[in-house]
Amino acid sequence: MLQKYVKEQYYENLRNFKYNGQNFSILYNWILGDIAQFVVDHIPKTVAPNVITITGFCTLLSSYLLSLYLNPMFDQGLPQWASLYITLTIFIYQTLDNADGKQARRTQQSTALGMLMDHGSDCTAAWITGQLYLSAFKIAFTPFSMLTAIGVGFGGFFFGVYCQQHTGVFQLGVINGVDEGLPVIQLFFLITALNSSDFWLNQIEIFNGINLQYNKILLLITIGACTITIAQFCYPVFKLMNWNIIKILNSLHLPIAVVFTFVSLIYLSPTNVLSKWFHIYMLTVGLQWSKIINIWQLAIITKENFNQFSFTWLITLGTIIINLYSHYFTSDGLCYFDEVKLIFTLLAFSLLSYFHCITSIVTQLCEILDIHAFSIKQKY
């Protein structure tokens, strides 16, 4: 039942893979790296690095599931204690995310599977954090906020992998959305824990009687930080392409397709479905997004050719788009299939395909590399 994602002729590339990453972050090199090292120094050498990765991710995932339970429609604020819990889980996630690589080097367990699980978790954590953002800060599902959530949740990590594919290096800048961005988000959640979600509905006068809600200011700060991060990733790639617009656009099929899908839903849905169900659409597309990013990472590791569209990806986006445009051909002006029922059906499909993909990749890589995923097989 499991799929083979690595062809036999690429096994040797997988075994010989060496991760090439650089982190110039001021905060990481002065503070966060030392915190992670302190944690690693107190972890037994018998603990596999992937256990640290999954523990950190599951901690963050618990915050997301809690927010869905407390605020299932994302139309209310979160209790102050829940915001404090999210603050702590983001800190734990970031710390363990920095610690897993240090543990891998400490125990001589650095493998392609470790990088894949680390970056795969980071990819999913990016859009999960975006969802928490919407839930806690009482941000309405306006076109502006929804497109911001898509850009931040999906864009940042995509362009990191995009840069890695073309330059061979996963590089984080002096100020980046991971090392500097997550502590800022933790600060926002801490403020919410101290003041409640309603705090972000307050307004401040900018100039000449123009007022902005605090949560709108948060969005603007987030957009600015994400833009800087993406620009740092894109500059070396665009330079390699000699700033050729055709080549650049041709290399960005995936984000263009996602933006087209959500823009179409925002402006063409006859029931304005995203005004209530944006978080479910985001979850459905996010699972397929994480799946394709994992496959992309694997292709970088094995040096295989990569196609930005998988079969399940085409089914998910294709079904949403075809159903959306069907309302032009129905007698009542509504989509052929109910948009809410359809997205929950696609959500179940995305969950199954995502877990099937992850299980297949982990199983195959453990066989090829002769390792265990969550325990240390060789002596350190």
Automatic annotation (TrEMBL):
Name the Gene Ontology biological process terms.
Answer: phospholipid biosynthetic process
Q: Which PROSITE patterns match?
A: CDP_ALCOHOL_P_TRANSF (PS00379)
- Which InterPro entries did the record assign? CDP-OH_P_trans, CDP-OH_PTrfase_TM_dom, CDP_ALCOHOL_P_TRANSF_CS, CHOPT
- Primary site of residence: membrane
UniProt keywords (A-Z) are:
Membrane, Transferase, Transmembrane, Transmembrane helix
| Pfam families assigned | CDP-OH_P_transf
List GO terms (cellular component aspect): membrane
Subcellular localization:
Membrane
Q: Which residues cross the membrane?
A: 47-66, 78-96, 139-162, 217-238, 244-268, 280-299, 311-330, 342-362
The molecular function terms of the Gene Ontology recorded here are: phosphotransferase activity, for other substituted phosphate groups
Family, as annotated: Belongs to the CDP-alcohol phosphatidyltransferase class-I family.
Q: What is the name listed in the Swiss-Prot or TrEMBL entry for this protein?
A: Ethanolaminephosphotransferase
Q: Which organism is this entry from? A: Paramecium tetraurelia
